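Weekly sync notes, structure subgroup
Attendees: PM, AL, DS (notes)

Item 1: joint prediction request from the bench team. They want all two components modeled as one assembly rather than separately. Inputs as received:
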Amino acid sequence: MDTAANIFGKACGYGGLYVFGRREYHSNIKGLHSYFHLRISPKEILANVNDVDLLAAFDAETAVRHINEVVPEGGVIIDSMQVNTKVLDIPTLPPEFKDELVKFMKENNVGETLNDWLNYAKQKNVHVFPVPYMELLNQIGEQLGIEKISKITRMINVLTIGVSFALFKYDRDLAEKAIRATFAEKGKIAEMNVTALNHAYDYAEENFDGFKHRLEKTEVNEERIFLTGNQAVAMGKVLGGCRVQTYYPITPAADESEYLEAHQIMKTGGDDEAIVVIQTEDEIAAINSAVGAALAGARAATSTSGPGFSLMVEGLSWAGHSEVPVVITYYQRGAPATGLPTRNGQADLRFAMHAGHGEFPRIILASGDIEECFYDAAKVFNLAEKYQMPVIHLLDKAMANCSQTYPVFDYGKFKIERGEILTEKELEGKEYRRFRFTETGVSPRAVLGTKNGVHWYTGDEHNEMGHISEEPLNRRLMVEKRMKKLDLVEKEMPVEDKLKFYGDRDSENIVVSWGSPKGAIIESLDMLKQEGFSLGFMQLRLLHPLPAGDVKKALEGKKRIIDVEDNYTGQLGGVIKEKTGIAPNFHILKYTGRPMTTTEVHAAIKAILTGKAPERQVLMFGS
Amino acid sequence: MGLKPSDFRVPDVFADWCPGCGDFGIMNGLQMAFAELGLEPHQIVVVSGIGCSGKEAHNVKAYGVHTLHGRTLPFATGIKVANPQLEVLAIGGDGDGLGIGAGHFVNTGRRNLDMTYIIHNNGVYGLTKGQASPTLQRDVQTKSLPKPNINEPVNPIGLAVISGYTFAARSYAFDVRHLKEMVKQGIQHKGLAFIECLQPCPTYNNLTTKDWYAGEDRKDASGKPQSRLYKLEETGFDPNVRDWSEDFQKKMAALDKAREWGDKIPIGVFYKNELEPTFQERIASRIPFYMERPPAKQKLCDESGMSKVDLAEFMEDLKTS
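Output from the run, pasted for the record:
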């Protein structure tokens, strides 16, 4: 399914179209309902919407779950062999969902077979396109001289693409190009898929009509890329100088590490460089190996999600105490416990802020879209080394697994700032103290192995040399030395890394949010502006230390402060209240594990602006 | 002129171990080994865990990283991978390495990094006042245990050999010369070396004491104590794997020797195999310049700080035009 979605997205990209893709899957290998939601437009797209123009269902469950999302005059592609399936007999449906279906069928007078459901859709002017996949596969098998059809059943994906593009009347050459690019290293498979694509395209052209939606290619004069958040983070890390990455496999973080390992060696114009990716035995080893690598002078990171971060907490505390520049890429997912391991969530802000025993400095930077994921993934290493503290790059599953079209990133101006690292020469003849008290709290660092720089680290409270000390005065000074570095961070951080404004800043209405809801909020803002509403949006990026002064200034005197987050308690809203004394008076929250869509965010904000909404709205869209 | 063992002392730090603690012997052994190998303090990183043994890192003049309970090996792994030119020694207690850190003990064996891991084995958790460690024999009752130990002990040498450590040795804290020799061999070994260092805990282990090891309770006819410890190298035991065909037998022989406990306790090298590629070699097979330009030694940017990394290859993969 992912391959099909990528081919589809690529083909659209070749035609100069922007694509936004959202991948939803269960925590299993196969068997349960997975889907890929693609939105395509000649204009830039930032999020998903609820409406579906064309639903391509490989199985009956997909049709049942999504049929009500299809708009009038939209279409449903379905395997013609499935139409007699009894909906309540679909083995993968859980009982709590069947209850919902029974209720729906009763209320809307829909019968028990999929065909009944399709007829229900037809009444709402939805076109149904039954495709005899097995028959088509048999014909293709014959054409290619393949006897065992089981060997090519996977090509149903490509058949669906062929049918879809035929319905949209999209240039099939672009789909062919996308297939060839996807299977570039497997020439024979590429050709088989091209044959399948054309066969399906021809079939649909001959047999289906009435579908009015069109995809039209346009000319563009810029180079574009289509990528996921995981890929953006991986590339950002390479750019930012990350040279050791540790990880323990976990959804939705592991794809990033695998992508890095696959692209291990990189060109620089001079000597090649390389990143070493270590798959450790657990997340405890992952954080502590990254800390070790950082002490030795490599830019080092680990990448995980909630359960993994839980195991890293003791190591984080050590790193904060010992002033280690280590980066933790933290993809939130549905929590607590195992939670919704493959779904979205933003319920770990408080955890990221407070994880670890004791008080120690850390930076939390939250990206809000895939482009920010890229640049931030590079920047966090500068922050870690300049301020000598752990940096948590806080992301979420929606960004990790969504894919989006962008112009090729302009990364040539990225500057590496390593902070003060002492060389053998600078240390010669001097007594070096790793934790020397300084005005800013940052002590010049020597990395392990530097001649003339021998020093110590310990998780016990230490003196300037790094040896254990329990002296009260030293303790006080060390605590203060560490903590005051946060003031420096807040002072020196460029404002665009702290927060960003969109829309009408002077409006009496302001949305506050962080992370992946950003795209849906910005699109809603544009829609609301056209509808005559005035509204601003403040995206918080530096979540710790929270730039309280800037936030307070932005929120003072506002009539409506609308907090939008993927969690139950409105964590950012709570943090803002704690740090500024100003509390959001409206909350738009979602904790189903599915990312917010523009449609529902727009409706929720509009309801607030028109005085029709309660203080707290909980969003539900998405299966 | 090479350095002397005394050059590896740390005058600013008072070694706060109990009088008669084996940790002093281990500290001396390390200092002697470093001096004899001609190492300089900045070339060495001593990574230690939590427990009395954790303080070794502060009492040796070398880069010292006193880490978390059980996590010596992951820290050491990160350090060594980032800069393989460093001489990395991981040091921890028996509870640290075989209790809370047992997962790392096993998995580090799978990598065969070229470094040395020393476990201080005294059978008790000293810093928390004498609870049973994972190496304490079942049914024995050291003085602060409310009841006899209910668990079977782990066999450190045996676990090391089957986990992939390519050097497994044992020594004794009060035989400093032997200990120094084992440490030297461990450091010189190409691959991951494990050294179990037996030591008394004069405060909490009243069973396997210095006198017990020395055999004060089993004197011969002339009244001379019969030490429980004997040296493998004096029995003609050959731990060296010279060809893969003899590896299994050498491992079995090591396991067999590792079972001995009580009145006859072997010390010395149990197993040694330098045929297995190290983790560094494995990385270098993927990154040919790894040893010359490891992660900690890469430039990352030009003089002005501009990143010179070319992402063209990444971008090419992702392009849609």
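Discussion: Residues 5-284 of chain B form a domain with the Rossmann fold fold (CATH 3.40.50.970).
Action: AL to compare against the crosslinking data before next sync.
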